[in-house]
Design a protein that fits this description.
Elements lengths: L3 E6 L4 E8 L2 E9 L11 H23 L8 E7 L3 H18 L3 E5 H7 L17 E6 L4 E8 L2 E7 L5 H11 L6 H9 L22 H17 L3 H32 L3 E5 L6 H13 L3 E3 L3 H4 L3 H12 L22
Parallel strand pairs: 1-4, 4-5, 6-9, 9-10
Antiparallel strand pairs: 1-2, 2-3, 6-7, 7-8
The structure holds 5'-O-[(R)-(carboxyoxy)(hydroxy)phosphoryl]adenosine.
The site of 5'-O-[(R)-(carboxyoxy)(hydroxy)phosphoryl]adenosine has 19 residues, from α4 and α5.
């Protein structure tokens, strides 16, 4: 018998629903919220309201696109955290109601774990290139920068993480300083393609072990621009592409240095990336460069599955379904959740 899972994601500013049948994604609908652009960041209350508006149509579309009936669904998985509490509550409440109304089990999903399992999303009629256990994962998003040993679908160990800002935050905050809209990461990436990555240099952190730090870069970037603007008020506009390319190179260099160290220390050469920043072209290229240099086998999720999406939630829920890992109607979302909170 086939197993069909509905996945729901509402942890931040994307409302998403996905249908997965026996691990193969049939639909992955994402409604993004343009409302936040004017504010330079996600406004939690507006995000919750937009989720309320979007959740029913998004789920409806996901079911229709998958070509299944609501009654065919065997379980519903939802992001329980980490994320914005008001946003998480919308997805959690919807999932509970859906499970109750259809008399099917409910499965909680940790958003961080789901980002990594995005590397196991199988698309119909496409080659399924996935890592074998154990492998190393670099999780880089707006809220996380972590190096993880993935021992099994549901068994992950964090061996390095940021002690302050995340890599995505570094992209977004530096972009904001340059007057670019939120989220800045994709725009910096776009300009970087036409700029000189060696035009400017910025401070890199000196942190022990496998941990990251990005707050120093943000400060160094800010002071650098402030000084240059004193000499030339038009400095940012005149150098936008070179600034973006140099900033991106610095962030990618910081990420790669610790990833290389982790690979050396663990002996693992299969490297997967996950989270929104994994869409970055500079990071992807840096990884590909290492396939020859260090004999790495690199795994990069398709764009639709690297940013926040319900496909990754559904694939994680599918793995939990196979192990009867269900939860009750008294489940509540958590704004903070770590890998230690993963069952
Ligand atoms: O995983 P995600 O969609 O949301 C969470 O944080 O959970 O990641 C969003 C982050 C933002 O910081 C955004 O600027 C960054 O991913 N991002 C990128 C790119 N696309 C998204 N950063 C650099 N280059 C990109 N192409």
């Amino acid at each position: 018998m086939s197993i069909i899972i509905l996945g729901i994601e509402s942890s931040c500013d994307d409302t998403s629903a996905s249908i997965i049948k026996d691990g193969i994604v049939l639909s992955n609908i994402i409604a993004s919220q343009a409302v936040h652009e004017a504010y330079g960041g996600v406004v939690p209350e507006l995000a919750s309201r937009a989720h309320q508006q979007n959740i029913v149509p998004v789920v409806d579309q996901a079911i229709k696109k998958a070509g299944i009936k609501k009654e065919d669904i065997n379980a519903v998985g939802f992001t329980r955290g980490p994320g914005l509490l008001g946003s998480l509550m919308v997805g959690t409440s919807f999932a509970k109601g859906f499970a109750l109304a259809n008399n099917i089990p409910l499965i909680e999903v940790n958003h961080l774990q789901a980002h990594i399992l995005a590397n196991f999303i199988q698309e119909p009629d496409k080659e399924f290139h996935h890592p074998d256990f154990p492998f190393l994962a670099l999780l880089v998003s707006g809220g996380n920068s972590q190096i993880i040993i993935v021992k099994d679908y549901l068994d992950m160990e964090v061996i390095g993480q940021t002690i302050d800002d995340a890599a995505g935050e570094a992209f977004d905050k530096c972009a904001k300083v340059m007057g670019l809209p939120y989220p800045g990461g994709p725009i910096v990436d776009k300009y970087a393609k036409e700029g000189n990555p060696d035009a400017f240099t910025f401070n890199k952190p000196r942190i022990q072990g496998l941990d990251y730090s990005f707050s120093g870069l943000k400060t160094s970037f800010l002071y650098f621009l402030r000084d240059r603007m004193k000499e030339n008020p038009n400095f940012i506009n005149e150098n936008m592409k070179d600034l973006c390319a140099s900033l991106q190179k610095t962030i990618v260099d910081i990420l790669m240095k610790k990833l290389e160290k982790a690979s050396k220390e663990t002996g693992l050469k299969q490297i997967a990336i996950a989270g929104g920043v994994s869409a970055n072209s500079g990071l992807q290229q840096a990884l590909r460069d290492r396939t020859k240099k260090y004999n790495w086998d690199v795994f990069i999720p398709n764009l639709g599955f690297s940013l926040d999406n319900a496909g990754m939630v559904a694939v994680t829920a599918y793995r939990k379904y196979l192990k009867d890992m269900f939860i009750g109607q008294d489940a509540v979302p958590y704004a903070r959740m770590t890998f230690e909170d993963v069952e």
